[in-house]
Amino acid sequence: MFERYTEKARRLIFFARYEASQYGSPYIETEHLLLGLLREDRALANRILGEVNSQEGIRAEIEGHIASRGRISTSVEVPLAVESKKILNLAAEEADRLGHRHIGTEHILLGLMRAEDSLAGKILQARGVRAATLREQVAKVSVEGINVRPTSSKRATAALDSFLAGLKWHNAEELLTFFAENAQFVDVYGKRWNREEIQKEFEALFAPYAKKNATYIIEETLADNSDLLIVIVLWKNAILASLDRVWIHRMSVVLVPQGDDWAIMLAQVTPVHPK
Question: To the nearest whole number, what is the mean pLDDT of the chain?
């Protein structure tokens, strides 16, 4: 479902799930998507909603409309509510309308605006946000960016290649140097690990990709410039020998400049079940 989503959009969904669990909601509602947006893309939120207490004010308004229950463990799967699924479908429509291959946070925001009867939609409307205005802004940015060729960073690509290939023959201590100090890894079960935890459990976390028959290809490059490299990597046979089904894992990797080199800021894995 999320193949077309940018890394920021995927993290938005992750944060929405987290918000739902914190309020004890059995479903990811539209208000949780809005809170996830505020967490993940503050720049977009500030541009559309204004910088002054936009996040705090919206959270307070949401809390005034919902009943807070006991927190749900983040290990428990929280599905999307029907209305939230509708919003993600609307986001895909907006991306298609604008001729975009990707679905980003801006498209999800447009989907939230179009769901006028939802709690998130009403909150946005009350703040004067209009879908037509944002759509024009998104289209303008896209048109302006057509003639701008991003600056490719060969060093970033080389660092990623070294890490991926090195999983077969480097040890954990050497591979850990590829990660930034504040790096995070989201495993195939959705659990988030910080760098200290990655260090402790490195071999277990990356064992599926160190197997002899595990192979990878670069599926898509979402961003490639002097400040950021975002790549989607498909791993085949990324499964432990104790399991008899062949799965493919999709690994989204974000690299950023660190000193004179590049480092992994985020790596997130999702399973792809073969048809």
Answer: 83
